[in-house]
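B., you asked whether I could sanity-check this one before it goes into the benchmark set. Here's the sequence:
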Amino acid sequence: MDVLSTIGVWAWIVWLALILVFLVVEMLTGELTFLMCAGGGLVGLGAALLGAPLWLQIIASALAAVALLAFLRPPLLRRLHAGADTRPSNVEALLGLEGLVLSRVSPSVAGQVKLSNGDVWTATTDNGTRLDPATRVEVVRIEGATAVVRARAQEVRS
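And here's what the prediction gave me:
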């Protein structure tokens, strides 16, 4: 008996082992990619049990895995993440937040602003204006630990 025919006879064991490895990796990652590969392995196992040659088992397995990845995984991921919290967090949550100047803020001198969420940040302005205490501002961007702010539109004085 040559090597290829021996592999063909025992291929179902290799497919089972491969499916188990894919399932274990999927449990560790949770991205559904290896689950789709395990589905492809299941098709390869089915082909092996039906007596298909090794090359056909591999092609059937690969085609099934690609089809599952392309057509089944995206809707499953959308459904899995359907209830996810889409609210911004961290720096993104601060953008557009309103605040009040506590100490003078200018482009060259960092002052302090108290944001509407209660945080006090070191701040500079983005457009070259000087903002005095009690001026209402909004956060334009965050640069490191400094909030870049500008006066609210209705607060700009001539």
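One thing to flag: The mean pLDDT is 90. Otherwise nothing jumped out at me.
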